[in-house]
Every structure is written in C-alpha cells, then in structure tokens.
Design a protein that fits this description.
- By secondary structure, this protein is an alpha+beta fold.
- It has a single domain, classed as Hypothetical protein af1432.
- It is 55% helix and 11% strand.
- It has helices at 4-9, 11-27, 34-50, 55-67, 79-94, 98-109, 121-131, 149-156, 185-204, and strands at 157-165, 170-177, 208-213, 216-217.
- A 4-stranded mixed β-sheet has the order 1-2-3-4.
- Strand 1 and strand 2 form a beta hairpin.
- The N and C termini lie far apart (41 Å).
- 43% of the residues are buried.
C-alpha cells in the first residue's frame, strides 16, 4: 500500500515540485514548494486526526496536501486541475488503489478558490490547511520596494496557527499581523475569497470557521 513517505520520496514528484517553484519564482509568486507543501500535509492530516477520522483517511489527506501544488509545474493558471491529473497518473504508476488516487485527485482539483470547493473530508481538510498558510516566510522577494499586495500581507504575518476546538466545534485560524507593515483590512481585501472557501470547508466537516487577528475575533 502506498503511504505518505512513499509520496515524499518519489523522484518524479520532487522534480515537479522543484520546477513548480522555479516557475513561480520567475512569475513573482509566494513560496509553494517543500516548506508549504509539508506544512499543508501536516495540517490536513492533523485536522482529520483531531476530528477522529481513521488512519487511512488521515494518510490520504497528508498525501493530497503534499502534492496539491504540483500543477504549478505546468502553469499557474488552472494549476489545481492540471495538478489533479498529474497526481492521479503518478499515483497510478506508483501502484495506488483506484479509489484512493481518485480521492486525492478530487481533493487537489478542488483546492483553488477560483474553481473549487469542499467536496469530501479530504478536500475540506486540504482547503483549510492550504488557506491557513499565510506567513512572511512565504515571500521569496528580498526587495520590499517591489512587493505587491500579496507580498505585503504575507510579510506582515509574523505567526499563523490553525487549531481545532472539538468541544465548541470550531476551526480557528489565529494570525499575528504587524500593522506597521500593512493594516488588517488589507488581509480581507486580498484573502476574502479564501476566507469564504475556508468557511465552506469547515462547514463540510461540521465546524464553524473562526478568524482571529491580533487577538481580535473577526469571524
């Protein structure tokens, strides 16, 4: 049976992730490579584990989280769909069960806010994990004079924590934003669609999505 470690070790996946980041660097996008993918994998798995899902579903969520952005090796535009197809084919060649690789394909194909939504427990966990990774470490540009709004907002976030409150049935995204870099309102200007997507993903899992910025509950 294919597991998370097998996916991380796969040479083809490593090469696609490397070239995806190379392309995004040229285009001026934030970091979408190893750090981001590993963090999303860990958070997606942790979400389902905290909610009591079985080990198999947790493992699938981690795998989907790790490879969700390989479509960026093709093109940033429509990367969720191209990535889903790439992932399906690679996992098939690795010998993964049909039902499992289809689940991962579906989750990856629905992780982008422009075209997707939560359609399964795995996709919901992937969305919440992916959209929660807002942090200055994702900004690859060194010169702040060429930052765009996305760069400014990410750079302003000094801490990002995602946690589940099972008693109150909430998933909480807790951010610390340096308002000397950008005002809190800029977060909503840039990430409103992602926030709405996270709310829908939380609802799919039977949770309320709560956003806290600088110790103030905003959702």
């Amino acid at each position: 049976m294919i597991n998370f470690d097998d996916v991380v070790a796969n040479v083809e996946i490593k090469e696609m992730m490397k070239n995806a980041q190379k392309q995004l660097d040229v285009l001026g996008y934030t970091e979408h490579s190893g750090r981001h993918c590993m963090l999303v994998a860990e958070r997606a798995g942790s979400i389902l584990q905290t909610l009591g899902y079985d080990e198999h579903r947790i493992e699938l969520a981690k795998m989907a989280g790790y490879i969700h952005d390989i479509g960026n090796s093709v093109n940033r535009i429509d990367h969720a769909h191209s990535g889903a197809i790439l992932a399906y084919q690679i996992l098939k060649e690795m010998g993964m069960e049909l039902s499992d690789r289809t689940e991962i394909m579906m989750a990856i194909g629905n992780h982008d806010e422009n075209t997707g939504t939560a359609v399964s427990d795995i996709s919901a966990a992937l969305i919440l994990a992916d959209k929660s990774d807002v942090h200055r470490s994702r900004v690859s540009k060194k010169d702040r004079t060429i930052f765009d709004k996305h760069d400014e907002v990410n750079y302003a976030v000094t801490n990002s924590e995602l946690r589940i409150d099972t008693k109150q049935k909430k998933v909480i995204l807790d951010l610390k934003i340096d308002t000397q870099i950008c005002p809190v309102i800029d977060y909503f200007e840039i990430f409103m669609e992602r926030t709405q997507m996270s709310k829908r993903a939380a609802k799919y899992l039977g949770l309320w999505f709560e956003l806290i910025i600088n110790d103030t509950n905003l959702l």
